[in-house]
């Protein structure tokens, strides 16, 4: 999972990763998530960040704002 890798890298962690549940994961899991922003893009809006950059910026913000926890 890419996002887990980005988060672990940003936190300086290298945990052992174990996946179970086969191709579908656990009951109710959605192994693929597709985000469709075509409707909002049709208004002229464009995202400021790629998903990876957004995840990393979120982790950094959380690290710098421990009061959230």
Summary, kept brief:
By secondary structure, this protein is mainly alpha-helical. It is 41% helix and 0% strand. Helix 1 (2-11) runs parallel beside helix 3.
CATH H-level superfamily: UDP-galactose 4-epimerase, domain 1
Residue fraction in strands? under 5%
From the helix content, strand content and strand pairing, which structural class follows? mainly alpha
Mean pLDDT: 88
CATH architecture annotation: Alpha-Beta Complex
- Tally the helices: what do you get? 3
Order of helices and strands, N to C? HHH
Structure description:
The protein is mostly helical and 69 residues long. The protein has a single domain, classed as UDP-galactose 4-epimerase, domain 1. It has helices spanning 2-11, 38-41, 51-64. It is flat. The mean pLDDT is 88.
